[in-house]
Amino acid sequence: MSQKSYSAYSAEEFALDDLFVRWVKHPDDEEVASYWEIWLDKHPHQIEAIDLARELIYTGSKPALPALSSDELSTVWGRIRESLQTMEDVLPLQPDVRVVVGWWYFIRTVFAALGLVLLIGWALWMQYGPNQSVWSIKTHADQTRQIRLPDNSNMTLYPNSAVRYARRWSDETPRAVWLEGEADFSITHRNDTSSARLFRVHTAGLTIEAVGTTFRVRQRPKGTCVALTSGQISLLLKHQNPIRLKPGDSIEVATGSTKSKSLP
User: Fold this and answer.
1) Are 208 and 154 within one domain?
2) Same domain? 122 vs 185
3) Distance (Å, rounded) from C-alpha 201 to C-alpha 214?
4) pTM over 0.70
5) Residue 18 CB-half CA count within 13 A
6) Which of 128, 182, 192, 264 is least enclosed by beta carbons within 10 angstroms?
7) 122-179 pLDDT, tens per residue?
């Protein structure tokens, strides 16, 4: 079954979408925010659904009401006791009425439980089903893995590393992976080189944008090293203009800093 287009999403479907929730909860994520702003410019008819979905997420994220104080609890219990004392005695039901009422409560309980199960199942499917799930891959100290990404790009994940990315990529989702550790990338070239269609590798200190490219990313305690073999890439750092590398260039970005230096 093909992935449902955002242009036809309802507010409830937006509120269950990982990429949309990330935008609402982390508005400072520049890449995700840029993606949704561009998308909204192209689909203005969905603004009402987007606003309602945002309200659903805000409402669901609100903390529970604070507990009652001891004085408030005493007042509530006092009112309950007073109501019980003034209630008239309840007459027992006739046997035939008890049977009907018993069956009614039984059927109502069964349908309520069934509805709850279906609701939970639907929510889990929307959150973790094939169209929404995220791959998370980790390697051990003596393990190297070859990974084919959803756009047919290739990735070699080296020992003691981890990567995560959306299980399926489409024209409405960015091509992006989140890397911890060391990996080689061989990116499939696309004719569309607009910002929204570039391949991106996110690390703790920087973001790498690539077109059709072969490069290596290696994270170490002192910083992140990027070495370009072929093609072209740009490094995006906070508070600094993008850095473009040529084939054969290597650069290291110090941990916790926006400074970088070229490597021999």
Assistant:
1) yes
2) no
3) 13
4) no
5) 18
6) 264
7) 555 444 444 446 788 999 999 999 999 998 899 999 999 999 998 888 766 678 999 9
